[in-house]
Amino acid sequence: MADAATESERVLTAKGQETRRRIIDAASDSMVERGVSAVTLDDVGRATSTSRSQMYHYFANKDELVDAVVICVRDRILAFQGDLLVDVRSVDDLEEWANAIIRCQRQGGVWSGCPLGTLANELMNDTGAERVDIRRAFDSWQILMESALTLLRDSGRLRADADPAALAMATLASLQGGLLMAKSMQDETPLKVTLAAAVAHVRTFAA
């Protein structure tokens, strides 16, 4: 599903757009917490006080809602990560980025893992738009990280032979693995260890 607004979305009134957004937000929270397969359109309708006819006015079926949920979760993550990475001007700042992620996970009371990773795990065998959108979401996240690392290299904080794309992929893979293990074990140690290793790897390229 493309990121651009669909024809039906473009003709919605301001109130309709707000209702659609409220449905997507509620569905995103529920599907990340409970799983995509466990959440029905009726569940989302009850949570948002939206009738069945209204639900089908905004979404033709559950697959269309899941498409919107993937994009919503992606946008939430990119907004959060963008706010953190915009301040990265040194490898020490990258370490602070890692610490901020750990602090954010601690605030939730339980180790909930990565929302996008949670969706990806459930939808990985899907052949529809959701799988495409999840790949694009991870690509967007990697590009965001790569841009921060490119800035470090171009400003002389990293050596000229540093490969921002490879470092970004390694860092995000470490983050995803750490989040998954922390969620499974309900222990922050795996996340702390994997992020420390990722930052240490980037530090080997410090100028």
Tell me what the structure shows:
With 207 residues, the protein is mainly α. It has one domain (7-203): Tetracycline Repressor, domain 2, CATH 1.10.357. It is 73% helix and 0% strand. The protein has helices at 7-10, 14-34, 41-47, 52-58, 62-85, 91-107, 115-123, 129-154, 164-185, 189-203. α7 packs across α8 (129-154). It is elongated and about 60 Å long. Residues 1-10 have low confidence and may be disordered.
SSE layout and pairing:
Blueprint: H1 7-10, H2 14-34, H3 41-47, H4 52-58, H5 62-85, H6 91-107, H7 115-123, H8 129-154, H9 164-185, H10 189-203
Helix pairs in contact: 2-5, 5-8, 6-10, 7-8, 8-9, 9-10
* Total domains: 1
Secondary-structure element series: HHHHHHHHHH
The CATH class designation is Mainly Alpha
Radius of gyration: 19 Å
Approximate shape = elongated
**Number of separate strands:** 0
Query: Roughly what is the average pLDDT, rounded to an integer?
Result: 91
Percent strand: under 5%
In CATH terms, the superfamily is Tetracycline Repressor, domain 2
CATH topology: Tetracycline Repressor, domain 2
- How would a textbook summarize the main sheet? none
**Which second-level CATH architecture applies?**
Orthogonal Bundle
SS-based structural class?
A: mainly alpha
Fraction of residues in H or I helices: over 70%
Query: DSSP helix count?
Result: 10
Q: Kindly report how far apart the N and C termini lie.
A: 42 Å
Low-confidence stretches: 1-10
Task: Please outline what is shown here.
The protein is 73% helix and 0% strand. The chain contains ten helices and no strands. The termini are far apart.
